[in-house]
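Phosphatidylserine decarboxylase
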Amino acid sequence: MTDQADGPLAQRRRLGEWLPRNEAHLARYRLELAARARERGATAPRTSAVDELARLINGDPVLRMDMTRAIAQAREEGYVLGYSSIDELMSIIDYLMTYAPPFSETSLIHCPLNAVLDWPMCMPSGSALFRDPALNAQLKRVLNCWCGFLSGPHSREHLNTSPPEGWFCAEADQRIGLSQFICDPDEPYWGFASWNDFFTRQFRAGERPVDEPDNHKVVVSACEAAPYNIQLGVKLNDTFWIKSQPYSLQDIFTSAQPELARAFAGGSIYQAFLSAFNYHRWHAPVSGVISSAYAVDGSYYSDADSEGEDPGGLNDSQGYITAVAARAVIVIECDDRAIGKVGCVFVGMADVSSCVIEALPGQRVNKGDELGFFQYGGSTCCLVFEPDVIRGFVPQPPFDDNQEPVKVNARIATAR
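Predicted structure tokens:
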């Protein structure tokens, strides 16, 4: 490999702090990963899911061509990848299957595979490549493999108080506020059984009270998330992939749910994004009965063409990914018939695409009850309302990327 830690350094917005803004830091990180991967690869066989990914790409001439060209295009632009071939990339991905993210006060890299694929995925050859269904199906298996590691006891390497990488050190505590969560500093690993157990940590009783629990007109935030967008008069079908990333209901709910999508045509959407440091469980924004709950397989590293050759494109494609990314859809038939249905769409992105649904069809939920959670992260969530239901939203644009998140169970809208 001939990668050097120089070349163009793009400074982009990085919503939610899943990756640092500094491209030079990411370049050094990729080179470090590559060195560790070479060392591990010399002594350990590949994980079966990664071996299957390599066989898929190398066995399909179009996938092999597009991946090879995407890598070459990124390197020709001068970007530091840490790899120059498909085989070297596979070795890095394999190393990440036993990787638990350390804390960093300034340069947290919570999505390591996203950091590795950052540039190839937004090159011309990468656009079609990372939308390929077969590739995404195998990437899902790879991410599930990593999720399995993060759900086991060997993932607790950084669950300690040692700075600068321990998640319980003073610097981390300032960002997380550990006292809000159920944990015990006197227990090994503070009582967490795994990285995922820590990441899906739960608030102590009373930390996030439900705003006006008996007032059905008050709609609360389903996630601890910062407002991203509000759109009125949402269309059943729209060209979400071209410019301004409008919402396309039939694509969000999928073609298998045409009646459900039509129920929301002309309605409104509230979208918010999650931070790497925040709470990652979902809660019911209204009281009612779950009428639909299903997972949608989708893409993991596809960004909107309108973002161009930009490593932050995936992060900036929040509207686009509601229609193409892996996601969980939960629909609540509200107790207040004037509100009707409320669609809750929890969208995974890149490495953080494991959506676990807990509330099932037929189950009654009260406002504030838990619906499910993101494992090893989260991305963005949408609340979808029928036409003429919402009198007004509390958060109002323009939204600041750096603003504090709206607390889960806090009021975000009032119904008519």
